[in-house]
Amino acid sequence: MALTLEALVAQRSLGLRVLAGRAELGREIAWVHPTELADPTVFLDGGELLLTTGLTSGAEPAGDYVRRLAAAGVTGLGFGVGLSHDAVPPGLVAAAEAAAFPLLEVPPPTPFIAITKAVSSALAEERYAEVVRTGKGQQELTRTALRHRAPGALARKLARLVDGWVLLLDGGGSVREAAPASARAMATAVNAELGTGKAGTGLVSIAGDEVVVQALGTRASGFLVAGTSTTFGAAGRHLIATAAALLSLAMEQDRARGTTLRGLRTGLFELLLAGQDELALTVLRSAFGTNPDPPWTLTVLTGPAKDRAAAADVLETVADEDQSVFFAEHSSVLVVLTGERSGQAFIERIAGLHAGVSPSTTDVATGFRQARQAADAAMVAGKPLLHFTEHAGNGVLGLLGSDTAVAFADAVLGPLREHDAEGRGALADSLRCWLEHNGHWDTSAARLGIHRHTLRNRMAKTARILGRDLDSPGVRAELWLALNV
What we know:
By secondary structure, the protein is an alpha/beta fold. It folds into four domains: about 5-110, HprK N-terminal domain-like (Udp-n-acetylmuramoylalanyl-d-glutamate--2,6- Diaminopimelate Ligase, Chain: A, domain 1), CATH 3.40.1390; about 135-250, Beta-Lactamase (2-Layer Sandwich), CATH 3.30.450; about 275-395, Reverse transcriptase/Diguanylate cyclase domain (Alpha-Beta Plaits), CATH 3.30.70.270; about 400-485, Arc Repressor Mutant, subunit A. It is about 50% helix and about 15% strand. The chain is built from 16 helices and 15 strands. It has helices at about 5-10, 60-70, 90-100, 110-145, 150-160, 185-195, 235-275, 275-290, 305-320, 365-380, 390, 400-420, 425-435, 440-450, 450-465, 475-485; strands at about 15-20, 30-35, 50, 75-80, 105, 165-170, 175-180, 205, 210-215, 220-230, 295-300, 325-330, 335-340, 355, 385. Helix 14 crosses helix 15. The longest helix has about 40 residues, at about 235-275. It is elongated and about 135 Å long. It comes from Prauserella marina. This is Purine catabolism regulatory protein. Pfam families: HTH_30 (PF13556), PucR (PF07905).
């Protein structure tokens, strides 16, 4: 802790006497500066204890002199008596008391150099203590990082070392760890400060606390936030920087390890697709401790790459919690393979993606194809989740993408629409009715309110315009599909 005026006065060997500003003796002394200048403020940084013998005292009103020193951030004034003045001028004492500005009397036996040495010694001790505290704290943080892979342990250790609170945020500002748990309440205010772009390079003030925000990793994939209701000091800031470096290193190592494991996951899933179940499952059990017994359910997650990356992080946790869950990246989608004992509850923890779920199966290739079709249909329909059984229950139309289906219908029915648009008949409506009644002339004609021979003429004209044989079952199926689209 820095030396204060009160601690300096308490050193009896100096014989200092407080004449004014006793209530402000808690001020810290940054340095000592002897001066006889009437206006020394241009040479000051603030926080100094000025020492003077009063050679220029009386050149101006004492009140102006004191106000100028106070405005410059001077901690206090020591007035040496016995040289130019036998006692501190009463006007100076009155002005200092009125301004609540600390004024000390320095007796004749005490040279100014003795005060300078006392302050210098205290500052050196303080800096040494900070170095020791920093060194010990860095050792504790390093040991914690080596013993515990989980970042929460490092966050808790740092919070104790700086006597404050710590948050670990992901790239999106969500809280990953909080120490203590009550620190989560600061997350909203911290994210608001991050949004201003001011945090991350130095100290900021949030809700009255002194706060440091450090970006983590080479791509700012997270943030270390440390706060205290007092001040950190140099040692505290060094410890925060050390924790940030350790966390960043761990994140880069995890990222490199994750890249390797993602490649292994993809390779294992491709083995499953190729029917090499026994080999793939053997490696899964040894490398990941995963054992998804068949029959399996496959879930395909499709959407933007950023959301797939976030989902992969969630699935890492899910796979750690449930040993019958395996996931992999394949063909720009995420695939999740779950055993019969697992459900799809993990989908609720994933945002921004569309999910397709296969029926239970022992054939990974079939399950993947079905789940992929359901996921694609879910994306077209704007649904977060679609089961293949529900998707297939929509009939042939449900298996076609809307753009593909519309293009097909335009190509097949285009000539007929052009004919009807010119007001030369309602051939499309007649064709639909005829197909609905399986080509039965009398029933179709009665439904349309025309003679059956008129309907025959219309169908013959439709066949000529379309260039199709309406007696062909395949042609009838295509026309029916196009009309429904």
